[in-house]
Write a structure and sequence with these properties.
With about 90 residues, the protein is mainly alpha-helical. Helices cover about 55% and strands about 10% of the residues. The longest helix has 28 residues.
């Protein structure tokens, strides 16, 4: 049980996006001291990179189910409108 408490749960994409929005609001107010602003900016940059990676991985997983030449379902990469069925 001790191992489960040691492992920190990674924030979800939505939680990261909410934190980015919060950071932007704090920085836009303009009343945060310089050092704190820099720390917020750095945190935001890391979160943006993480969210970008999450979106990239999601895009790679998205597939479109199409009907093959023999009528059976065929998986193809999303956005591959040319397809591999010679029709």
């Amino acid at each position: 049980m001790a191992e489960n408490t040691k492992k920190k749960k990674e924030p979800s994409f939505e939680e990261n996006m909410a934190r980015i929005e919060e950071i932007v609001r704090l920085l836009e107010r303009g009343d945060t001291p310089l050092e704190a602003s820099l720390a917020l900016f750095e945190e935001g940059a890391v979160l943006v990179k993480q969210c970008g990676g999450t979106l990239d991985r999601a895009e790679q997983k998205v597939t479109k189910l199409t009907k093959g030449a023999d009528g059976t379902p065929q998986e193809s990469v999303f956005g591959d409108e040319g397809g591999a069925s010679g029709t």
